[in-house]
Design brief:
The model has no long low-confidence stretch (mean pLDDT 89). A 7-stranded mixed sheet has the order 3-2-1-4-5-9-8, with helices on both faces. Strands 6-7 form a two-stranded antiparallel sheet. The protein is of the alpha/beta class. It has 2 domains: 7-172 and 245-313, Vaccinia Virus protein VP39 (Rossmann fold), CATH 3.40.50; 175-231, no CATH class. It is built from 14 helices and 9 strands. 34% of the residues are buried.
Length: 316
Amino acid sequence: MTKNIDNRKIKTHKSAVKNWWNSDKTKKWQHGKMYKKDFKNHLHVLFRKNRVLELISGLNLPKNAKVLELGFGGAELAGDLLKSGYEYTGIDISKHLVKHAKKKHFKYLKNKKAKFINLSLEDKYSFKSNYFDLVIEVGAFQYAGNLTKTLNEIKRVLKVKGFFLMAQSNMYSFNNLMNFRRFLKALIWFFQKKNFFYNYSLSFKDILLSTELKFFKKYKNSKFMNFKFMTNYSEVWKYKIIKRLFSIGKMQKLLKDNQFIVKKVSGGPFIYNSKDNTTIILSMLNKTLQLLCDLKLPLIIRFADSGIILASKKNS
């Protein structure tokens, strides 16, 4: 069963997501820096995009295939798909990202090969049923409050023999578990079977308070809890967003529970950083783990940074 945010919190959450993606801070996504090879700590984003394109290429879709992308962000993937000759439609909740995409890909808008629409992926889509050959979602589902509603819309607009490609960050990745604070946080998520999280704070105080144990909450204002050692690396979210936790196993279950057939499961990378900060040993280890992942070893895939899953819609 798909877990959705409590109805009492959904309105606040949706408003927070909208405000965040329309804020000035999110304008960095429109400059393409997230996909530059030398952009520190974002090599995994480049890998994910390239792996998505590899999977799409293997589908051998016709040149005029209709493609829908949910949450297109900086419209980098859109550019590659448009160059391949597909009829592209993208939706995004951010007005400034939509504006940027229209400016960046104006020639495709002019010849009616592209559409960029300001819309939440949780809204009702205006597209006809059985319209798209392929629907893509890359790193957007963690913001969906009611994922059941979104998946139902995807099934509605997707052709019977159409494909759905889902790519999401894995919160239990090898790269995350190499950091003790992140490892501790992941342990809490795992043993308490968490489906959502509320901030990225890595202070010991915030990590302990994120548990459901009343013991820690009882001492929230104690001297010990507010000692510098406990509050280091604290981070407060300005926007009250509830983010969805994904593992690669959860992604597969989500698709199967919502009447999709999983065709291919891919993942990676495993250890990443900026080009200047990655040692030869770590680089070789990453390549080895990636090779084992591509050989379809389930245990290795489970610890990839991103899960990339190709699925098809079940015949109704």
